[in-house]
Each structure stands twice: as structure tokens, then as C-alpha cells.
Amino acid sequence: MNDRIKALYRSHILVNAKDESHQGKLENATHVLEAYNPMCGDKYTLYIKLEGDKISKASFEGFGCAISKASTAVLSKQLEGKSLKEMKPLVEMFFELVNEDSDQSPESLTDNEDLLAFAAAREFPERKTCATLSWGELEKLV
Amino acid sequence: MNDRIKALYRSHILVNAKDESHQGKLENATHVLEAYNPMCGDKYTLYIKLEGDKISKASFEGFGCAISKASTAVLSKQLEGKSLKEMKPLVEMFFELVNEDSDQSPESLTDNEDLLAFAAAREFPERKTCATLSWGELEKLV
Amino acid sequence: MINAEKLKLQFPIFNQKTPSGLDLTYLDNGATCHKPQSVIDAISDFYSKGYSTVGRASYWPSSETTVAFREVRKLVTEFINAPSEDEVVFNFGTTDGINKIANTFLRPRLSAGDEVITTEMEHHANLLPWQQLCIEKGAKLSILPILDTGDLDYESFETLLNDRVKFVALTAVSNALGVKNDLKRICAIARKKNIPVFIDAAQSVSHDEVDVQDIDCDFLVFSGHKIYGPTGVGVLYAKKKWLDAMMPLSYGGGIVKEVQLQESTFVDGVARHEGGTPNIAGVLGLGAAIRFVQSIGMHEIHSYLMDITDYAKTKLNEMDGIKVLGNPVHQAPTLSFVMDGVHPHDLSTFLNEKGICIRAGHHCAQPLMKKLKVPATTRMSLAIYNTKADIDKLIEVLKETQAFLS
Amino acid sequence: MINAEKLKLQFPIFNQKTPSGLDLTYLDNGATCHKPQSVIDAISDFYSKGYSTVGRASYWPSSETTVAFREVRKLVTEFINAPSEDEVVFNFGTTDGINKIANTFLRPRLSAGDEVITTEMEHHANLLPWQQLCIEKGAKLSILPILDTGDLDYESFETLLNDRVKFVALTAVSNALGVKNDLKRICAIARKKNIPVFIDAAQSVSHDEVDVQDIDCDFLVFSGHKIYGPTGVGVLYAKKKWLDAMMPLSYGGGIVKEVQLQESTFVDGVARHEGGTPNIAGVLGLGAAIRFVQSIGMHEIHSYLMDITDYAKTKLNEMDGIKVLGNPVHQAPTLSFVMDGVHPHDLSTFLNEKGICIRAGHHCAQPLMKKLKVPATTRMSLAIYNTKADIDKLIEVLKETQAFLS
Ligand SMILES: Cc1ncc(COP(=O)(O)O)c(C=O)c1O
Ligand SMILES: Cc1ncc(COP(=O)(O)O)c(C=O)c1O
Could you tell me which chain D residue has the CA closest to the CA of A128? Predict the structure, then answer.
């Protein structure tokens, strides 16, 4: 793990895990996804509100480690304003970002530091499931 | 295995395995023992005729490898003229003779070459069961 | 008195740095222990100098392997004080042993309406086989609860032990909390009703004397890899009357008297239960591991580990925002704790970054986690190469992490 | 073309004399094969440099072990041409795999009156589990007979395969006679009736390509130790639909979604079936063994072994008083023979005295021995370090023994 990513992990992941701006139940959601990791008990509910083909709002509830929480928070933010179709390449990129077998450098995949921080998961195969918990659920939808 | 025992094994065991003097069924036997080694299929029936407390006659039928056959033949010969009580120390000695963990040298146990030849089994743990097949059945009796 | 720094030299893994250039501080011995050179050598010497199958061939090196294999059985027999070598079966691990006893011993003896007792602190390996068998049979699984200290609620045991109970299974030591159970007490109570007791000794065998006659259990299992030995090998002790009464634990080569196409008869003794080629290298490696433990002395190991466990418990309790879970009468060298406001997985990731191997999770004891009302804990578990310096390092990094994360 | 003398240098066991000062001539590869240095090193390097448990911990070296373990799964997947890594389960050996499929797959699917087909040439490991399950369930075990050549009586198979048949189990190669079976033919016939077929590949995996898609079998198992790998490790291939439909093969850690005291849910995929700590060192050693085989090439291995097997068969047939048993259409590198007037056990003892490791006995195939009307045979089975010189030595000592014994 290069030092920059290490630093990003330490800063961005912790910040995003504590960010409450996208937490909470969305009453009029059009899609509700359940993300659960039986191995560690992390559990999130992801609420998505689709208006036309754009997501007007997304939020989540639940508990888990900093990595899964941050990745769910970042995902919620990323969802807003995009169509499900637009999310597809983003989800794929995210999986590539955390894939330790990837031959693409994290920096060549994105320059969004919120996302880039998760490249640290390449070093922690066991934490990869934390990073992709909610993204994996979304993948089934897009 | 010292060379003398090796030689004895090669000579005495083969001779005794081919010796037919004690082979055959004994019609008026007082004791009939079945010795069977499921691992290799060797199977012998041992006939003993007790008159008073002395064994007047012993013989065997069956098939198997040279070692089990020779040891059964030698046993039959040894039985004749002895009481069951007298056989007990002999059986114990025989087990000691083939016991690879024994701290007694074969020569210190017996000078009967027919018996001594079986000390070769100390070198072949797997063949020990051949050597003791019939002796083990007799042991239950004495 | 044990000199852990010196003992550590016998473990090659510690004679190197981690890939990040750190010293390895290994505190996950409850999961698996590292191997001394003598165990590694036993395995490679076997493969290099005298490899062969065991028990069935009359040539060198098989004759030699057969003798060496038998010697390990003798060693294990003495090590657990089994009455005879005929009660010590080699298999592939604790999980394997438990599943086999469930399949072969308990399945044909359990009917609808019967009961099986296990405890609230079991590792999944000692819960699921009994639970699933009870579901299959329409039997009831009774759970012996734990008290707030983590200790078993022994008083309840007599109440649970009614006439429908056919089997009792419990662990010697909780892998999650380090609670050490009073096995003799449980066995004595069950003995009065002639109910067989099964002991999962996976977590006790490396640091506590196992004496199956003193415990008076019917079955006991452990894994080689948790006592400085190889992976893929385990020991099952069972009373001879059960071994002889059971069908073979595994059907395969070496267990038969006579096989016909439609029926077969099986040999007696342990051979009956060791069908197929055993993990021969694993058994020989286990022998080396037990010799290693004996060369130090179980009594010395036990008091050394109790000493550093006490030290760790005191240090953890002194920290603000750290809570050690459970406070049993007898503590094994395993401690679970939680840090206020920090998820165990995040905590362990930070500790791992400093070369500290420590485990976060439910420790395969989900029902216990539910009882404790935590999703997971962070667990340290000690072995003879650990020192107070390891614990000091842990405490230091815990403090750093706390400052950083909360 | 294989240079066996050169390959032999990679096997440390052959770089020494036997305790009696003889060269080791190892012809019991059907029982187990020796290990090349690369396999021995894979094991000791793992224990010395990066030992840890697999899959559950987030620290180095566990992260590295998890990756290496997964790589072996990938390697095995390619090696047997399984459609996906999700169909390759690690266990402890062939016997273990067969027993688990009998217990977990077939037991709940078999009722009184049902039928299971196996063959007359099976190793006890691939007979007893099905036989005993049939007895337990009141089902019928049908036996596919062999012809005088040793080949399966394929014509009878279609007759046996009635609507009550729920399962077919057969070996790829007879361990006693070296008969190679036409697995595709059997599977194609069974497929028409949707009956699952189980293949015991213990005797074929080291010298014959295994392609589970081409064979189109439902299950296939083999042991690591028979393909130059470690003891105590095995592979179970099963079609994904079966793996997902079956209850876990072994209940333990790592297989659960959620555990409650009275019920549990299990994960999908291979993790579902690998409860408990696997033989991690064994799996890594198996990886090294498969890489070793691949470095030579299965095709090359196969033709080399066929070549020296033909040579051996010719030489044995040329001898008076020696009878090679069976004369199948496809011969694997295993030959059983008998010598007139000499019991196989005596023969092998004399051969062993000259440093020749060869096996006498029923080869865990008592029903086959009965069919052949012999109590036992002497068996030679070849591996890649064997040469024509080994066979010449065998023939020479056979002649000496014959002169001496008969
Ligand atoms: C055809 C066959 N099946 C099964 C087995 C059993 O293999 P293992 O002893 O490795 O479990 C063997 C080996 O002896 C065999 O030759
Ligand atoms: C108490 C207890 N039981 C059983 C097991 C399972 O042991 P293994 O994985 O070696 O089969 C473990 C180890 O994780 C344990 O701690």
C-alpha cells in the first residue's frame, strides 16, 4: 500500500464513516436494499429514491465497521443525481479498485479521493468484503 | 537381522512350511481352533487331542503364506506331548521371540532352530501377524 | 521458569520481519499456533528420508513408518492419560472428530423426543453438528447457559439433565472468552445418570493438562495445529466400550475383517476407526509437537501463561474505554475485549498495521456474541513464545489507536 | 520424452541407500507416491516463513495464506477442468470424500427399495460406504460385474440401470488390476436417466488427464498423496447444483451465515463445505505437487508410463510360472501377478529383502480377489521416477526367488 493511500484510508475512511449526512431512513424510497455480512454481523439498509430515471435521493441505516460504513456512505453520495445505468461502470470501477489482482493502479481508475481511499483494501483481502458490502448489493440492481 | 537368523529363516521356515507331517484333519480332536488373518486371507484350523492332561496329537489344515504355515506346523509339533499348562511359557516365549521391542536376544530365549527362525519377524512387523497367527489362537486357550 | 525469548528462537517464523519490516507479534494462538523447528523437521525428514504408507506394507520404509506412527499413538496415550492405546484414534482435526461422533455414535442412538445438552459458549464446531442432528431427528437441543462472569451455570445442569438426555457436549475452554470449565464436575453429574459426555479440548490442550481418566469423559477431541503441530491432524479419545460398539467412523481401507459385496465385518480396536490413508506426516509432526511441549513441561507452560494472562488482564482493565468480557473463576490465556466507539474489525486492522496479529470477529461463537450483546470482539490468545513485552506493545498500540480513532 | 533418472534427482528419498545399504526400488506407487523437493519445501516454507490460518484473519501472514490457498483452488480447477472454482472442495483424502458424499448427499436421498450401483473392482473405500448405507436404508446395492479381461461388463450396465437406481459409484482405474474404465461411457448412459455418477479418481489422477466436463460426472475425488503431494489432503469435485443443494459436508467454523442456538443458515459456494481448519499445509503442498506434474506435462507422463508398463507386462508374461491378472483394453501403470506355488506375501518379503518395495495382499479389494479366485496378488505400480532398469531388477529378483522358493 503506498503511503498516500494509507493516508487517505486513515483520513477519508474515518471521516466518511462518521459523516451522518446520508444516514437515516428514506420514507418514500423506490428501492430498499439489504446488505449483510454474516461473517462479522455488519448490516445496512440502503434507500434509493428514483425519480424518472435519475436517483434523487439515497441514504442508509445500519451498523458495522468503519470501512463498511464509509463505503456505504460514499456509495449513497455517489448515487444521487445518477441513473442506475450510469452507476454500472462506477460499481465496476469500485470492484477493480479494491481488487488485489488488478493490473490497473488505483490512481489510473479514479481521482476521487473518497473512492481512492478504498484501494487500501487491496492490502487487506479480508476487509475487501467490508468495502464492497453495499456496493455488491447495488451491483445486483444495476 | 543377523545373518544366522536370516539363514535360518530361509532354510527352516521354508522346510517347515512344506512339511506335511502334521497336516490334515484330526477326527477325534478335543479342541478345534480357527486362526484367520483377515488382512491377507490366511486361514488355519488347528486340531488338538487331549488325553488326560497331555496333548497326544495335534495337526492343522488350511492355507496361507510360508511364515504362517511354518509357524502353524512348528506349533503343532511343539504341542504334542505337552500339557496345556506347559504350553503357556512356550507361547509367551514365542511372542517375545518375534517382538521387535524385546530387549532379549533371540538366542537367549531358545536354541531350538525351528523356533529361532521366527525371530526374523522382528525385522518385518507386518509379517509378525503371520508368525503368530495360530500361536495367538492357542494363547486364548492356555 | 520459562524463558519465552529463548523458546521463541526455536520458531523460525519469529526469526524474520513481516513484509512491512516489522517484528511479528502473534496473539492469535487460539486460532492456530506456530511451529517449532522440530515439528517442521519431523515432517520434512519423513518426506525426504523415509516416506511411505503405514501399516500395510512389509518393506522398508513402511515398516519404519509403522513403528514411528505407533510410537506417536503411545505418546498421545500418555499425554492425555488414556487407559490404553486402543482408545486413541487419529483423524483430521477437532471439527472432523466432532462430526464423526455425531454421525456415527449419536445418530443411531438419538430418537425423536430425546435431548442433547450443549452450552451457550460453544464454538460452532461443537454446536452445529449436534444442533443439525437434533433437527434431523426431532430431538431437543438443551442449552446450558452462562452466568455474567462467563462461567457455566452449573446449578442449571442438574435440572437440564432429565431422563430424555442422551448426550452432553461441551468445550474445555471457551475460545471466545477464555472461560475454563469444570469438566470433572459436569462428568461426575452426567455419570450418575450414565449419560456420555463429549469434550472439545481444542482450546485447552496446548496449555492445560488433559487427563481423560481424571475428567472421566467418554469422548475428547483436539487438533494438532493448536498445539504447535501440523494442520490436518487431530486426535479422538473415546472409551473402548464405545469404540467397539460404534460402526467405523470412516469406511475405507484397513478396517475390515471380511468384505463381501453385500456385507462386511470390521476389525476391533482403533484400526476399525481409521479407514483410509491417515495424515501420516501430520501424525508424525504431532508427535514432535507433543515431545516439544513435554520438553518444556505442561505444568511450567500453564503457570507461565497464567502469569502473562494475569498481566494482560490487569493492563487491559487499567485502560479507559476498554472492557474485558467475562471474568470467570478460571481464566485460560485468551481474553476478549471491546473498545468504546471502535468497531473490533477496525481495531484489529490498526493493530495488524503494527505487526500485531490479533483476531476480531464473532470467533465462530455467534450465540455467545448475542448473549454478550456485541456484534464481535477483539481477542488476544497467548502461547509460550509470547512475553510481557508483547503485551506492552499491544497496550501501547491500543492507546495510539484509541487516540486516533475515537 | 521423460528422463526419469533426472527427474528422480528431484526426489530426496532416492538420494540415499536403504538401511540395508541397497538402492531403493519403489514399485508401490498405487499405495502412495514419493515427494519431490518442491513439495517438501512448500510445506516447510509455509511453516517457517508465513504460517497462519486461512480466510478468517486480516493480518499478515493470514492474508498471504488466504491468497496462496485460493491459488491452489484455481490450479486444481484448471487441472481437472472444472467449470468453476466454486466446485472444488478441499478435504482430507479420497476415503474422506467418499464417506462425506455418502453421509451428506446420498443418505437423505436414499430410501428403502432404491438402488445404488457400484462395480466388482472397487477399492473398499468406494464400496463400503455405499454398501453400509444401503444396509441402513434397506436399499439394494447392485454390482456391475467384470469380464475375464478385467474390463467392466458395460453391456450389463444398461440392464442394471433401472428406475430405482439413485446413484452410481465407480473407480477410474482399478487399484488392484490397473484396469482403466470408460468413464464417459458410463456417465453418458447414466445421464440419460439423470442419475448422478461418482468417480473415485485416486488411481488415475497421477498419470491420466482428469477432465470432469469431458467425463461429465457429478462427483469426483482424489487424494493428494497419490499425486506426489502430502498426506491428509484431498479434493472433491462436485457439480455446483449438488454443492448448493447439499447440507454442509462438515459442520464447523467458516460455513455459516447466521447461527442461532436452535437453527442456522449456511453460506453458499465451497465455503459451505469446508467447515473447520483445513489441512492448509497439505493444500499448499498439493499445489506444489500439481505444479510439479504440470512442469513435466500430463501427456508426457502418461505416454512414458504406458511405455514402461508395456515393457513390464511383456517381461512378466515372458516368465514361466508368472501370471499377470487381467488383460484389459486400457491398462493403467499397475500390474497384479501371481507366481505358481509361491504365496504373494512370501514373494514380496523376498523382493523387499532386495530393496524392492512391492505390495502383496488383497489391495483392499477382497470381492475382486474372490472373483479372481486368489487370496492375494503381488502388485507393482509405477510412477515417473521408475525406469526400465527398475523393471529389469524386479524380473531378475523374481527369477532368483522362483529358483529359491519353488
Ligand atoms: C481406487 C482407490 N480408491 C480409494 C483409495 C483410498 O485413498 P486414501 O487412502 O488416500 O483415502 C485408494 C487408495 O488406496 C484407491 O486406490
Ligand atoms: C473450542 C474450539 N472447538 C473447535 C475448533 C475447531 O478446530 P479445527 O478448526 O481445528 O477443527 C476450535 C478452533 O477454531 C475451537 O476453538
Answer: D58
**pLDDT, tens only, C291-339:** 999 999 999 999 999 999 999 999 999 999 999 999 999 999 999 999 9
Class of domain A3-141: alpha beta
Shortest Cα–Cα distance, C401 to chain A (Å):
11
Rounded distance between C-alpha atoms, residue A44 and residue A129, angstroms: 13
* DSSP output for D268-279: -SGGGG--S---
Radius of gyration of chain C (CA): 22
Residue C343 has pLDDT above 50, yes or no: yes
**Amino acid type, D302:** H
Contacts of B2 (CB under 8 A, 6+ apart): none
Phi-psi region of A51 (alpha: psi -120 to 50; beta: other; left: phi over 0): beta
Tally DSSP H helices, then E strands, for chain A.
Answer: 7, 3
Per-residue pLDDT reduced to its tens digit, C7-25: 999 999 999 999 889 999 9
Listed by start position, the domains of chain D span: 4-27+297-405, 40-295
* CATH class of segment(s) C4-27+297-405: alpha beta
- Grid cell at residue B50: 487331549
CATH of domain C40-295: 3.40.640.10
Determine the distance from the C-alpha atom of residue C346 to the mean position of all C-alpha atoms in its chain, rounded to a whole number: 27
Task: Tell which one of C120, C123, C235, C334 to mutate to probe ligand 2, the residue whose CB is within 8 A of the most ligand atoms.
Answer: C123
Are D34 and D24 in contact, with CB atoms under 8 Å apart?
A: no
Asked if residue B106 has a cis previous peptide bond (ω within 30° of 0), the answer is no
D360 touches chain B (CB under 8 A): yes
- Tens digit of pLDDT at every position of chain B (142 positions): 456 656 767 788 989 999 999 999 999 999 999 998 877 778 999 999 999 999 999 999 998 889 999 999 999 999 999 999 999 999 999 999 999 889 999 999 999 999 999 998 887 767 888 999 999 999 999 8
- Which of D217, D160, D208, D162 is CA-nearest to residue D187? D217
Task: Choose one of D29, D95, D362 to mutate for the ligand 1 pocket test, by most ligand atoms within 8 angstroms of C-beta.
Answer: D95
pTM for the model stands at: 0.94
Nearest listed ligand to the Cα of residue C56: 1
